[in-house]
Amino acid sequence: MKHELVVLPYAKNALEPVMSQATIELHHGKHLATYVNNLNNLIPGTKFENADLETIVKESDGGIFNNAGQVLNHNLFFTQLAPKSEGRPSGKLLKAIEETWGSFENFQKEVETAGTTLFGSGWVWVAADANGKLQITKESNAGNPITRGLKPILGFDVWEHSYYLDYQNRRADHLKEIWKIISWAEVEKRY
Ligand code: MN
Predict the structure, then answer these.
(1) If you average pLDDT over every residue of the chain, what do you get?
(2) Average pLDDT over residues 42-53
(3) Backbone angles phi and psi of 110, in degrees to 5
(4) Ligand 1 center to 142 CA (angstroms)
């Protein structure tokens, strides 16, 4: 099946100043589009030709995994953003966060620490196990905890292409600011 570039649920300039239109145009319009094109070019003639994206990520390796993983990761990433965050989650997600990290503020700090200490390119995920227990995972390159049976509900892209135009080398500042554009309504739907 042909994989498509995910449609953004907001205008390209709607996340400014946290994430500039130029970053969206490069990150979504160039980097993600390239992963989608690569995946579509790699799968014909393989057992993944008609597989859905999650199945490919769980079962592939090498170039197919790298591109499929990045398509899945970015689909989750771009659709979890909104021009104005609610500020914090509510309901059972907030409860699960408080159970694991004590407070929402401490959870944010742990996410930011994971992001700043991840060496090189990769992702920080907040993921749920089968019992709904949450954990923060650090993944290099195209990694996603879905390959270990966890459900990713919130992702932080710490590849330099994600923040370099707006924050240069200040990854920590990018992670502090991005909370302002997290759609907790969308994240709660995934939990
Ligand atoms: Mn990216």
Answers:
(1) 98
(2) 98
(3) -65, -40
(4) 9
